[in-house]
Specification:
The protein has 1 helix and 11 strands. The chain is mainly beta and about 180 residues long. β9 and β10 form a beta hairpin. Bound molecules: copper (II) ion. Copper (II) ion binds next to loops.
Length: about 180
């Protein structure tokens, strides 16, 4: 009886416990995508003071949204394969975005909810993109960076997955 109760509780926690996820976990290849990272809780009750997102390869023209009360910092990395855009050769790309609360009063309490946004163009090829997210709190942190595997299908701190879908055959022509 006790074991059954614990198992049920764990299952409920698994569904109710939202971790960090995307508002739109799937989008069409080649589309302009608004990656909205949903932060539903802190670290074991502690308030969130920073969110750091590592972007996967393959996005183009990624731009983070600033947030009132949070300082936005970014790092860039050189591209393995530079490309042309608007008549310019693009040789580097956004690698990491960090939002840091300006003061304890700006931090996100465990009981509150907020969203952090990066806009980017998705790759032309369908597939999976994985974002690693570091969630820093007043005490402790989460590093959402584990990819599910056969050995560990439900990691404790999963990375954030975006499914890039094939463009539907019925899609409207580009205009
Ligand atoms: Cu969670």
């Amino acid at each position: 009886m006790k074991i059954t109760t614990m198992f049920t509780a764990a299952l409920l926690a698994g569904t109710a416990h939202a971790h960090i996820t995307l508002d739109q976990p799937a989008a069409a290849a080649g589309s302009s995508y608004r990656a909205t990272f949903k932060v539903g809780h802190g670290c074991d009750g502690a308030a969130t003071t920073a969110i750091t997102v590592t972007l996967p390869d393959g996005l183009r023209g990624a731009k983070p949204s600033p947030k009132p009360g949070w300082t936005l910092t970014t790092t860039r990395r050189p591209l393995k394969a530079p490309y042309e855009s608007h008549g310019k050769t693009i040789t580097d790309e956004l690698a990491e975005v960090r939002w840091t609360a300006n003061s304890p009063a700006d931090a996100l309490p465990d009981a509150w909810y907020d969203e952090f946004v990066v806009r980017a163009s998705l790759p032309a090829e369908p597939g999976e993109l994985w974002f690693a997210v570091r969630q820093t709190c007043t005490e402790g942190e989460w590093h959402w960076a584990e990819k599910p595997s056969a050995a560990n299908p439900k990691p404790r701190a999963p990375a954030v997955k975006l499914t890039v879908q094939p463009v539907a055959a019925t899609a409207q022509p580009h205009h």
